[in-house]
Fold each of these.
Amino acid sequence: MIALSLAGLALTLAILWANLRPWWKGNREMKMLRPFGTGALLGVVSTMCIGGILGWLAAGSGRLANAVGGKATGAVTGQESAAAVAAGRLGTLTPEGAVIVFLITVGTALAWREAGKQDKKRIAGGAWCGAVLCATAGVAGALTWVPSLLNAAGTTLRATAEGAGLL
């Protein structure tokens, strides 16, 4: 995972704000957060992937956030804010946890196909924010329980499929 710059963080927080603002100004129904949350979940779990498409996208989103954020803050303020933010990283996946991440990816892809134009933007914004913010020590530290949950869910799925008497 690439170190996130202060400018990349600023860009990501602007995207977060743009996605959460309509919900906050509206009647704050939880269902309004579903598209953004779906994307954010995919973004978060993609940071645990050491390879594959999700790992590549997670790493690329950090690089893109730094580049675009640097140009945007430079254009607005005259200062690019390239200083790095304290880096963080979520844990690793077991093979069983990887199956759960695969299923989350399939679910997100299906939600994307059924979504309208506005909800597609919210899914993409959520995936961006989830992946980029997990590169910070604060967010990664707050979500240290996620890899264990995914790995445990995968282990339970495997045990059930192997007939461990859970059903």
Note: The chain has one domain: 6-161.
Amino acid sequence: MAVTLDDKLVVAISSRALFNFEEENLLFESGDEEAYMRHQLALVHQPARAGVAFSLVRKLLAFNTPDAQHVEVVMLSRNDPASGMRVFASAKAAGMRVERGVFTRGRDPFAYLRPLGAHLFLSANEADVRQALSIGFPAARVMTDSTPAGDRFPNEVRIAFDGDAVLFSDEAERVFQTAGLPAFQENEADKASLPLASGPFKPLLAALHRLQQGAHASHTMRIRTALVTARSAPAHERAIRTLLDWGINVDEAMFLGGLEKGPFLREFEPDFFFDDQTGHVQSAARHVPAGHVSSGITNLAGAGNERPAQRAADQPPGLVEPKNS
């Protein structure tokens, strides 16, 4: 019988997302591939420091037991195969069972997400993330300067999601961008009972839900999720009803009405936070590991990615833009 990953949560991750290879990356980007390869080979027995997604990956892998493998982590990297040896060696030194990898020596790696059936792709390369999203895979560009995850919850995988253009489609945000806040509020009130369409990260949330449901009751690991959105009442109702319609629960929901997300995420202490607006991602990264999801109308060329977040900061809490990112 052929080996398959169909029954697992599959995370594809680049070397820079899992480990701190920022100094090495400067050499890679200089264009001297041979020097980069020699450098990595010289350090093959020197474990790399933890990267932005290290805590998330380590905790997800903790769902695996000798009897059942629930999570598969696959290296998907622009590194050359020889440099990939240090990646595998560093994972082994960290106690991570990472057995599979694709190394493309500078070529686009995102197409391999299809045969992997990945539920998540994390990379420091923005172009790869955009391409992955364009072919239907949840993907985020890790902010490599993010604050590392805390260690207060060793037995919980804690993940926070933005709503519109991340868990949900950007249909409501498009109303706001084209017609303004009053039209948005009217639209969401009128459609409160109509579920929003799926966004790019619904498959990951659903896979996490299945992982939690499939883990044995005696398993020590748990998953805790949070919706962190700039929506506020009455626009909160449609978001909640959408999740109920999907049959997926989140443990916490924060309807912040335009308040800065970073301080709230600091209290939740996620292993990772996903958002589609760079302003909010940068706010989050000052406190927690964060990634930018290049999705939705605010990430279209010339859309002014910073504008909504900046405008929200200038408006009173009751009159802020509704974008949850």
Note: The two ends are 44 Å apart (CA to CA).
Amino acid sequence: MRQTRLMTKRARSLRRKLTDAERKLWYALRAHRLAGLSFRRQAPCGPFIADFLCAEAWLVVEVDGATHSTEEEIAYDRRRDEWFAANGYRLLRVTNSEIYRSLDGVCETIVSAAHPRFSTHT
């Protein structure tokens, strides 16, 4: 799917407005710091914008805060999850509180989720 200008503009805007939890995780992911993996933040991916995308491992990491609790938000997240799965991506959801409580644990989970994918997509 071709990326639209509107999607690019929205992704740029989201990059400038990272939440504190996203900023903390991004510091751990950026510049190949986590096991040499390459991540992009607020990356357009199909009709959605992934919080963090590791294209080489076909992994999307979504950071969920308090805004993922209403029926409508849960339904939207379900549609996103289904789209990513149908298009070969593994989706990993982490919460703000997990990042604040145990960033090292979140990073270990991300590495575990990413490395098995290398053998199937490279």
Note: Helices lie at 5-16, 20-29, 71-86, 96-101, 103-121.
Amino acid sequence: MIKAEELSEVFKSSGIKRPSDDLNRLQRMIENSGVLITAWDNHRLIGVARAITDYSYCCYLSDLAVNKDYQNKGIGRELIRLVQEQIGEEVALLLLSSPIAMEYYPKIGFEKIENGFKIARKR
């Protein structure tokens, strides 16, 4: 299991906006993930895919983060492949993209959809 400090570092180094300085919250994010797949360079965490799923119908990919120094090397694509392998063929993989990643996801097999809604978090 990864540590909250390691997850914080990946979030910060990837450019993804997450509560990177709230280590208690990051620890809960780690503990309550249904799927947590990581990428390492020796003992350094460089990428993470974190998801919540019922392993039957749907899976929400809540985080895909790769350290900027390691981006454009296929790590994100491989993390997604490993998530799909773990959840199986019956399960749809869904995500909400940040504006800066809208061009990335179609390149790795995601189909853009327009029919979504959300209630935003308060903090």
Note: The chain is about 30% helix and 25% strand.
